[in-house]
Structures are given as structure tokens and as C-alpha cells.
Amino acid sequence: MGRGPPYRHRIPSGVLSPLSLVLPILSVVGLGDVSESADAREDAGRRSTAARTRVRVSSSRSLNRPPTSSVGAEPTLSRSAANPIAIFAATRWETRAVRRALPMDRVATIGGVRCHIGQRGDRTYWLIQTGVGPAAAGTVAGRVLKTQAMSLVMSTGFACALVPAQVGDLIVGTAVFSVDGESTWTMKGDLVLCDEVVRAGLLVVAKDVGMAVQVGTIVSAPTVVWQAEDKRRLRRLTDATGLDMESAAVAAVAQERGLPMAIVRTVSDLVDEDLPLDFNLFLRPTGWIKGMQALIGRPASVEGLNRLRKQSRVAAGRLTEWFERYAETDSESLRPSK
């Protein structure tokens, strides 16, 4: 977080003391990653791409040494891993949950996007952190999927359950779409269907782990929906099962590339509970001061942030547990439909 938004702007001394308390908590829920915006990635992409997209590959065990492969080289994959599985997650906290289950030993850089690569059995996984929000997710997914062939695209991480559920439950998407606006939403874009055969396999994995599963449509919002009243309103409008910010943007790129899509997330917050703060303040480039002022004005928010941290830990643990079993499952039963 050393170069995150709080460090790019002058912060009043009255804010610094509570800031040191809450920064670790905000990092847990992903706000330490907001500096990885679409604009930042766009700048990185321009610096790392010239006439064509270049791919740089190195071993994550030797990231402090020059990579053995040169810029422009394609990753060396086994024949069975020619078309790997792309797993997209928004924040460092969510990608860590996946990496605990799927050890990654290589890193590829595509258009400024770092992709962690690992293999388990006969399947190869590319794990990509997109950053928070649909703009960042769409930009990152576009760069990766337009360059590297994949057999399946998966959106994962945490989600809000818009139906009765428990923290840590699994949400498996049947389809995904996005809404535009804030509090008063309008439908945006097309409904993208998730692959039925893959979904059936995901549900088998969940059953093997003994996880409760909510199955249904996912809606992606452009901002954090933090009040219970708005969550319930969005549920009535869309009849969706789960809410996130990135899946629709990733799915739109997958559809454009003709790739099967899957969504599997764990519940970190519930439809009838407010989040402790309006996190949208922290997602704006100059919003940290306003966010900290809002936090200071609501001391109970610190308790709420700790509660959300605990819920996020539960969600992360369940996500790791699910991916561990997923990696052990026979590939044939998880193969996408033709």
C-alpha cells in the first residue's frame, strides 16, 4: 500500500492517528488495491506495448533475478496446458485466497498486467488481479484474453448475497449482467450466460466440500452498494442472487472472445446489513480525506470494519477450501460444453 491513494495527497494531522488504525482493515477489504485503476493500467500498457503485445515470463521463485525468457517470448506450457484457465479476482486479498489452494510458480506480464501461473494435475491456471470496479476489470481482462488463448474464464472473489444466506456460502452464477447508476439503477449491456456444463461441475465440487450454495444470476454494479436498503432495492429490480462489481465486465470480454464463462464467489456481506462505511469515498482519487472524516465522525464504523474483516476472512477461507477441492477434481467432469 506504500503508493496507494492515502500517500499521494496531504492528509491533515488530525486524520493520521485514526488512519494508522484503519489502514490494515481497509486493506483487508480491498481498498489497498484501488491505485491499480484502469488509467494506471492503461499507462502501464502503453509503456509495455509497442507495435504488438509482448509477453514476459519469469519464475516467481526468482523474481529478483533477470528472467530467463526474453521480452516477446511466449510462455512455455505443457501440451495439456495449451489453453489454460483464466481466473480473475479484484483484490490482493481475494487472489491470496486462491493462491493458497493453487500454488503459482511463474509470472507472465501481458500489456503491463501481471499473471501468476501454476499447474495442478493436467490443468494450468492463470490468476490475474484486476483491481476494483468494472473499468479496471474490463481493461485487464481485455489485455489478457486478447493475447493468451484460454479454455475457460472464471470470475472469483467475494460477493454480497442478495438472497438469504450465511457468510462463507458459495455463490455460483448462472448468468451475469450489469447496472448503471447509483441507488437508481438502469440495466446496462447484455445478459451473459455462464457455461452450464462447467457450472454443474462447480456444484459437484461444492457438494464434495459440504458447502452451502446459492445459485442464480449475478448483477455487477459500478459502485459499492453499501446500504441494506439499496441492496434490497437492487434485489427487487433485478431478481439477482449475488452482487459484485467486476464479473459482468470480465464476462463481456469472454463473450467477445467466444470463451466459456464461470462465476464462483463466496459471501462476505449480506443483503440485510449495512457496510460500516461508504467505501466509494475511498475509491475516488481524492476521497481518502473525506473517507477518514466520515470514519472519525462515526466511531462505531471501526467496530463495523473489524466485523467486515472477520467476515472477509471467513469468505477467504471458504474460497481457498473450494479451490483446493476444485483443483483435485477430474478435468473431464469440469470440461466446458462445446
Textual characterization of the structure:
There is one protein chain. With 338 residues, the protein is of the alpha/beta class. The protein has one domain (5-330): 3-Layer(aba) Sandwich (Rossmann fold). 37% of the residues lie in helices and 24% in strands. It has ten helices and eleven strands. Helix 2 (38-48) packs parallel to helix 4, helix 4 (134-145) packs parallel to helix 7 and helix 5 (196-209) crosses helix 10 (300-328). It starts with 12 loop residues before the first helix and ends in a 10-residue tail after the last helix.
Fold topology:
Elements: H1 13-28, H2 38-48, E1 55-59, E2 85-89, H3 92-99, E3 106-110, E4 113-120, E5 123-129, H4 134-145, E6 152-161, E7 170-180, E8 186-193, H5 196-209, E9 213-220, H6 228-238, E10 242-244, H7 247-256, E11 261-270, H8 280-283, H9 288-297, H10 300-328
Parallel strand pairs: 2-5, 2-6, 6-11, 7-9, 9-10
Antiparallel strand pairs: 1-3, 3-4, 4-5, 6-10, 7-8, 7-11
Helix pairs in contact: 1-10, 2-4, 3-10, 4-7, 5-10
Number of strands: 11
Please give the CATH class. Answer: Alpha Beta
Number of domains: 1
Strand content: 15-25%
Radius of gyration: 19 Å
Shape: globular
Q: List the uncertain runs.
A: 1-17, 34-54, 59-81
Termini gap: 43 Å
| Name of the CATH homologous superfamily | Nucleoside phosphorylase domain
Number of helices: 10
Query: If strands are numbered along the chain, what order do they take across the biggest sheet?
Result: 6-10-9-7-11
Structural class: alpha/beta
Sheet with the most strands, sense and barrel status: 5 strands, mixed, barrel
CATH architecture label: 3-Layer(aba) Sandwich
Quaternary state reads single chain
Q: What level of helicity do the residues show? A: 25-40%
Do you know the CATH topology? Rossmann fold
H-E string = HHEEHEEEHEEEHEHEHEHHH
